[in-house]
Structure formats: structure tokens, C-alpha cells
Amino acid sequence: KQEVTQIPAALSVPEGENLVLNCSFTDSAIYNLQWFRQDPGKGLTSLLLIQSSQREQTSGRLNASLDKSSGRSTLYIAASQPGDSATYLCAVNGNQFYFGTGTSLTVIP
Amino acid sequence: GAVVSQHPSRVICKSGTSVKIECRSLDFQATTMFWYRQFPKQSLMLMATSNEGSKATYEQGVEKDKFLINHASLTLSTLTVTSAHPEDSSFYICSATPFSGNTIYFGEGSWLTVV
Predict the structure, then answer these.
(1) Is A45 touching B (CB cutoff 8 A)?
(2) Listed range (A20-24, A31-35, A40-44, A86-90) with the worst mean pLDDT
């Protein structure tokens, strides 16, 4: 069974800092990997989708990479802002979706 | 815009009552939809796979008689939480995949509070 781990569980950084969130998975037979943002009391917002054949995807200040063979993905956030504070989830799509436990990010003004 | 619509986004119900959550694919047909729930500070967990025209497949530990899933059409799946209890309070979210492609689209999620 696929296991998805996210490190760190929580992260607090000052505004303007660049940061990296990590996601690892045990089964490399995946179709794609998605990064989501979840705000308290709100639903999921899809941030980036990386197909298994791709190495990275970029959207604005966000860059996600995928190394399928090693079972790793990273989400890079440049020039963090207080509005980036949220829980970030990675999800691996095999024959179903498996979610990590998330990284709770706090950006301090 | 959203391609999977989930309703309601928030619902409060009394203990012992039932509540229905709808998941609709707006721009595509989906033979399979998935239902997840998330307890506070825990990861999203798959509850069941909803198959159009047939019975849902439930994950281990999920009570099928309590969480009734109906997938009556290619664009609609419903999750009914029957005889709800406070411990059923959670975030429920659905996802769907078009016939073609492997991208999964998520609904906006529903926050259920049982009082």
C-alpha cells in the first residue's frame, strides 16, 4: 500500500524567506502527484499537478519537482508571504489518491 | 471554474438525524467518484469508491450502513451520513475523474458538524 509522508509537519518562517516542503512516497508506480493548499475551515485548492513523466511544474512563486524513481517531491515557495500560511498537502495518484498528513506553514509578518 | 461541485459546503445537524452531501461533475461524466474524510489534524482518508450503477466499495473500517453512497448518474454521487453522531463531524470531500485522462478533480469539500 502506498504511504505518503510529508516533512516537516509544521514550519514557521519570517516573511520573505524561501522555503521547501517535502513529500515522499513508497510506491513509484504513480500517474501523477498533486500539491494542495488547505486553509482552516475551507476546502482544498489545487496548486500544482505533475504528471509522472514530468520533472517539475511552476506556477507563480511555486515550483514543484518530482523524482519518481526516488519517491520524492518538493514544493518550493519563493518570497513567502503571510497569505501563504496554510496546510500544504501532497497527494499521489496511483489507482487511487493517497494523501500525506500535510505541512502546516505559518509565515510571520 | 470548478469542474466538480460539492454541496453543501457547510452543514450543521442534530445528533441522530441524517444529512446528504452531493458531488456533481459539471463538465464531464465520471463512472467513478471517490469520497474522503478528514478528521482534525489528520490526513484525508479514502472512505469509499462510488461506482455508477453499482454498489460502492468501502474501505476497511468504514460502515457502509452508516455512510450511504448512491451514484445514480454519471454526473452525481451522494453521500448520506445516517444517524449522525458528534464523532462524525468531519470534512468530507469528493473527487471524480473523466472517462479519458487520469487527472482527478476535487470538490470544494463539505464541513459537517453534528451537535
Answers:
(1) no
(2) A40-44
